[in-house]
Fold:
Amino acid sequence: MKYNRTYNFSAGPAMMPEPVLEEIAGELLNYRGSGMSVMEMSHRSKVFQQIRDEAEADLRALMGIPDQYKVLFVQGGGTLEFAMVPMNLMRNGIACYIETGAWSKKAIAEAKRYGEVRIVASSKDRNFSYIPDCSDLDIPQNADYVYICENETINGTTFYRLPDTKGKPLVSDQSSMFLSRPCDVSKYGLIWAGVQKNVGPAGMAIVIVREDLISEELDERVPTYLRYKTHADSDSLYNTPNCWAIYCCGKVFRYLRDMGGLEVMHQRNQEKAKLLYDFLDSSALFSGAVVPQDRSLMNVPFVTPSKEQDADVVAASKAAGFDNLKGHKSVGGLRASIYNAMPKEGVEALVDFLREYESAHKA
Structure:
């Protein structure tokens, strides 16, 4: 069956793969002969336990997650993780953060509630249009961890080389690039990702944390649910989890495995991004907002010469059948989020539209 679907360039919640949505639709009323929807079944049932276990197994296989790492499915999304990370990892009360844009700034602000935060590198001086040099950071001996937002969704930058943390655990917010390319999990102490950008529906974060960083000795005021140990000890079933999100994400994990894994997805994402960046680099009207070497493959911010023309492009794009090309309210301009589920045809259609717009608005 063909559906009248738009090319949705939203930064999140974002597109999901059509084959996954079709499979979910087919199981909506009766999951595999259970007589009920996943939205109706008990999280303590054997049927849902299998859904959860298969989702974790497929994610571990996709990423090659080592045995000494726990995989947690935590409600609340990314904003909650800004607090859970320092709550659980600030044992000495000091952490180092690399400031690269809007989401690392929010993480910094939240971490300051729980201890001392040292900004050891920043790209604020050039409006977060690049990734700062992180090869020789000034990291205190008593620092608990080093934190990065590995892909800044709003500002459109990404780390292609991880910082030298001087032996301290690296914590990474991978929300908007999660599962878009291969990842050596062993280089991190903790990875977390809000799933609504590149994996599934909103309302949950996935946390991959090395076991030695899961502590029992936390401030007694830390709520039970906000302790990583609570989720690790209960296989993310301490309370009623976001069953629907776990189910949908599991479908995406299996889809990615069937498509050939993260190497294949990375190649596709490079090809899609190149189409758009090549156009922007050749355009007389549109220009990218990020230095070429640090450009995200997932989130592409760009601008015209004026705010008024930016707004006109957004209006024209909606009329042409595209959605969510308006830049984030904090930075303006335009932005195309081209996650795993965005087909190459969608990027090609966007480039054709932008090229036609430019031709019609030449000075």
